[in-house]
């Protein structure tokens, strides 16, 4: 009886030490093996395909005011604005564009999503129809007292179309992943000239 208990204790100890060693080896391999290549730098004047969208960056600028494209900014608040031409590549109208551009600025809270407006009529977060290019303004409110940066740095995110997802068996755009970075000079207002190729 005592011999069986000792044998079991010995087995558990060996298994525990083996498990701990396996975890340690996996952690070391992960630390050295997970070298990520830097994301490609995308040309600001080019058309960029992100799965659902074709994007053409137009201009970036700093602005302030309480009603920029209908966005309810606090009086005296500064904002970074990116104007971009967007074309919906899907077969139906959608507004799935909030995460396609992510600002990489210390002056913008990364947890804050931008306001997005149609520039021609200041409609906030409209559905964009298939195949029709629209000029949109992404507007990030700067933190209180923050000065606008000299350039706007962005990461672009692509989604992949799946005929059936694993959870519901329905079609859709899934698996968001970064495809590259973009850097645009920040002008001083909405009259800044468009970026030319």
UniProtKB/TrEMBL annotation:
Domain of life: Bacteria
Stretches that traverse the bilayer: 12-34
The keyword Transmembrane belongs to this UniProt entry's keyword annotation: yes
Keywords: Membrane, Transmembrane, Transmembrane helix
Origin organism lineage: Bacteria, Pseudomonadati, Pseudomonadota, Alphaproteobacteria, Hyphomicrobiales
Species: Mesorhizobium captivum
Name by which UniProt lists this protein: DUF4352 domain-containing protein
């Amino acid at each position: 009886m005592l011999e069986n208990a000792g044998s079991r204790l010995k087995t558990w100890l060996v298994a525990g030490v083996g498990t701990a060693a396996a975890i340690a080896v996996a952690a070391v391999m992960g630390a050295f093996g997970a070298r990520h290549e830097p994301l490609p730098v995308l040309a600001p004047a080019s058309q960029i395909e992100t799965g659902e969208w074709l994007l053409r960056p137009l201009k970036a600028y700093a602005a302030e005011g309480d009603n920029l494209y209908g966005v309810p900014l606090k009086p005296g608040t500064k904002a970074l604005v990116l104007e971009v031409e967007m074309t919906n590549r899907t077969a139906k109208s959608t507004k799935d564009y909030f995460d396609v551009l992510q600002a990489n600025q210390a002056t913008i809270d990364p947890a804050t999503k931008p306001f997005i407006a149609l520039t021609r009529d200041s409609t906030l977060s409209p559905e964009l129809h298939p195949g029709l290019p629209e000029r949109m303004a992404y507007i990030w409110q700067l933190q209180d007292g923050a000065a606008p940066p000299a350039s706007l740095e962005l990461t672009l995110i692509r989604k992949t179309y799946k005929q059936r997802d694993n959870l519901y068996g329905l079609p859709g755009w899934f698996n968001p992943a970064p495809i590259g970075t973009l850097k645009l000079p920040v002008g001083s207002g909405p009259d800044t000239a468009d970026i030319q190729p």
